[in-house]
């Protein structure tokens, strides 16, 4: 007896349920590791901070003690600043380095938690941060699953669905690990950045600018707003503006008329919203420190040609700058980040060479447009890798890379279709569509042993990193 046919929507729901179950199991494992971790390691910042937040004579139930121990082991490194700033606002100059948008959202959520009135304030912020991270991570898994269907990759629906499911699984097991459970900004950034790409990818990529309808223009504005919000959460969200290079490319393949001018007029505010995600916190800080400083003294960065408090804080307090991190003592951190740097660059370069949709025979122009569009989607992760290698603290690339979707999708495509270009049909990579270097990267990614090594490496790294993080041990 043949099995009953199932509609595409029921298959999608089955996949989403499976992803949710996988998500819960994985999170429980990581939280168990965090809870079982013995203590704060060499740094007692969390112990001192949370001890002052709770009266010493307070008696807690067993469940409350469990929750407080768990959340205490999740408040590590930058999470200390996130929960503190969410509680009392920015006081110290260096606190402007942490996502202004995330701390504001964290403060808002903490006010509406049901138990907010009966818990010590800092614990409320910590609980809110953990809640935000878990909900945003799960939603970003679902958004990534849906994103694959919007991109001009792959072959039939069955193959596309497998790639979507595999990419979403890779995001569940992301190398960010426990950072996606702790009161950190990575989960929320992933959700906003994925959603921005998802909305933008809903615009038919081959559409010339003069044919953009009302829905496409609305998608442009929504994607710009989402990327702008992502930038307030993490400043590297500004890289997502590189996606709009595709519209510059398409301008040369479009007729100049009223519709084209209207589209360009909409692209401008969309890009401006992304830029405002960076400039708004800078403006607020400039007003506080440079226009009417409370102590009457201007800070040194106020007199710069580009008076950015963020760049000043990174440079002054953390010694961030071009090649400043290139020291002998940091070689282990570069080695730790090297696999992710290679993944970001290689998948970004390989992405335009993935097999295009073969439900119809695409023209050469259609194929070129698709390749350029995918390359523009991959540019943010390539730039992130290059800046991580040359400019900022390189080890954090293992967690901030989690907010960029293309590398998940390219790895998933290699896992689902592990054929080399020589074995696959000639549509996989064609000499007239892809550079030889791209073909080389594609060939390496398609090796089954490399795929297994990458997946195992992500799992092992997340588990080991979770134990180190909960014990306040580097790397962070």
UniProtKB/TrEMBL annotation:
It is a multi-pass membrane protein. It is an enzyme of class 2 (transferase). It is found in: Endoplasmic reticulum membrane. Pathway: Glycolipid biosynthesis; glycosylphosphatidylinositol-anchor biosynthesis. The keyword Glycosyltransferase applies. The chain crosses the membrane at residues 126-151, 163-182, 188-205, 264-284, 331-351, 372-392, 404-422, 453-472. Keywords: Endoplasmic reticulum, Glycosyltransferase, GPI-anchor biosynthesis, Membrane, Transferase, Transmembrane, Transmembrane helix. Pfam families: Mannosyl_trans2 (PF04188). Its EC number is 2.4.1.-. The keyword Transmembrane helix applies. Belongs to the PIGV family. Mannosyltransferase involved in glycosylphosphatidylinositol-anchor biosynthesis. This is GPI mannosyltransferase 2.
